């Protein structure tokens, strides 16, 4: 069970970093942190509608994978007698 736990922890770290990157790639909706990093400079520099939808889908899939890994790690922690 230790190899499974380690592989899930590595997957959790990788999906967490990738999810953070994907969230930062989203177009700012005005105000807040996005303006501080240049997100509110020009609407012509934004992505197209198709690219934004694809980015949304990938972000939701990675967030779902991250959630599944967190739940699996919790189940392993709860029911593993060697923990």
Concise synopsis of the structure shown:
The chain has 83 residues and is mainly α. It is 71% helix and 0% strand.
What does this entry look like structurally?
With 83 residues, the protein is mainly α. It has one domain (2-79). It contains 3 helices and no strands. The protein has helices at 2-25, 33-36, 49-79. Helix 1 (2-25) runs antiparallel to helix 3. The longest helix has 31 residues, at 49-79.
Task: Summarize the helix and strand pattern as letters.
Answer: HHH
Helicity range: over 70%
Assembly type of the chains comes to single chain
Tally of DSSP helical segments: 3
Mean pLDDT: 84
What gyration radius follows from the Cα positions, in whole Å?
18 Å
Distance between the termini: 10 Å
Largest sheet: none
Class per helix and strand makeup: mainly alpha
**Strand composition percent:** under 5%
Structural domain tally:
1
Describe the global form: elongated
Number of strands: 0
| Low-pLDDT segments, ≥5 res | none
Which key phrases capture this entry?
mainly alpha, 83 residues, single chain, 0% strand
Give a topology summary:
Elements: H1 2-25, H2 33-36, H3 49-79
Helix pairs in contact: 1-3
């Amino acid at each position: 069970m230790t190899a499974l736990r380690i592989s899930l922890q590595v997957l959790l770290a990788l999906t967490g970093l990738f999810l953070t990157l994907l969230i930062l790639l989203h177009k700012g909706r005005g105000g807040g942190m996005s303006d501080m990093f240049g997100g509110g400079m020009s609407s012509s520099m934004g992505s197209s509608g198709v690219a934004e939808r694809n980015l949304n889908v990938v972000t939701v899939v990675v967030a779902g994978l991250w959630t599944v890994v967190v739940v699996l790690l919790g189940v392993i922690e709860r029911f593993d007698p060697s923990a």
